[in-house]
Amino acid sequence: MNSLMLGNNTSEVEITNISSFGVWLLTRDKELFMPYEEFPWFKDQPVKSIIFVEEQSEGHFYWPDIDVDLTLESIEHTKRFPLKAKSV
User: Fold this and answer.
1) How far apart are CA 20 and CA 46, in angstroms?
2) Average pLDDT, 10 consecutive residues per value, the chain (88 residues)
3) Residues in contact with 65: Cβ distance below 8 Å, sequence separation at least 6, in sequence order
4) Which of 49, 56, 78, 79 has the lowest tally of Cβ within 10 angstroms?
5) 66 exposed, middle or buried (CB, 10 Å; 0-12, 13-18, 19+)?
6) Best CA proximity match to 66, nearest among 81, 48, 44, 49
7) Max intra-chain CA distance, the chain
8) Which residues on adjacent β-strands are paired with residue 33?
9) Distance between CA 68 and CA 62 in Å, rounded?
């Protein structure tokens, strides 16, 4: 008996946890923690806005509800990307 091949994985990226400290992003084989200290755009946002994330191209993530886009490199290497958005 042969098993049928499953379809393509349509969920290449997802938010796996939101806490009072930050957000966990799962992408392919990595789970990345984004602390609010480094990624302030997510703090105080509704859960539905945080979990609605798209991978527009490999390693490029976009949160349309809060108009934030980040690359895998900027998440993994925050020291290389020191500029931060300032609250108005």
Assistant:
1) 13
2) 50 91 94 95 96 95 96 92 62
3) 45, 46, 48, 49, 52
4) 79
5) middle
6) 49
7) 62
8) 24
9) 6
Measured at the alpha carbon of residue 55, what is the angle toward residues 80 and 9, in degrees to the nearest 5? 130
pLDDT at 7: 46
Helix (H) or strand (E) holding 34: strand 30-35
What distance in Å separates the CA atoms of residue 6 and residue 38, rounded to the nearest whole number?
38
What the block records as the tokens of 29 is 């084989």
pLDDT of 79 reads 86
